[in-house]
Specification:
The chain is an all-alpha fold. It is built from five helices and no strands. Helix content is 75%, strand content 0%. The longest helix has 30 residues. The radius of gyration is 18 Å and the shape is elongated.
Length: 113
């Protein structure tokens, strides 16, 4: 984003930065979908619909925001992408609290539910 803010990079720089970002997203999304669906084992169709619908909803909300902030440079896209990544990081820290582990999930322990 600093490269884009400095006015450098042009099309090649934007494409290179998008490649790196989308490579990371492409690595994380399948794993997150798998983890989300493993938590909703009993209603896998509903879990899949909820996760897919949430992805489409967030994409539909973010796309117009990029256009509202301007179409003359890639900076609005970079700001929206950075904001989404920061929101995801905050959700990880404050909602999932990865430092708190409670052992394996109930379905792995063989507990009846």
């Amino acid at each position: 984003m600093a490269l884009l803010a400095a006015g450098g990079g042009g099309l090649a720089g934007t494409c290179a930065l998008l490649f790196v970002t989308l490579f990371g997203i492409g690595s994380v999304f399948p794993a997150s979908m798998t983890l989300g669906q493993s938590l909703g084992r009993k209603a896998s169709g509903a879990a899949s619909a909820l996760l897919g619908g949430a992805e489409f909803l967030l994409g539909a909300l973010a796309s117009p925001l990029v256009g509202v902030f301007g179409t003359g440079s890639p900076m609005p896209m970079a700001v929206i992408m950075l904001s989404a990544m920061l929101c995801a990081a905050l959700a990880l820290v404050f909602l999932t609290r990865p430092w708190r582990t409670h052992g394996p999930p109930a379905w792995k322990r063989g507990a009846a539910s």
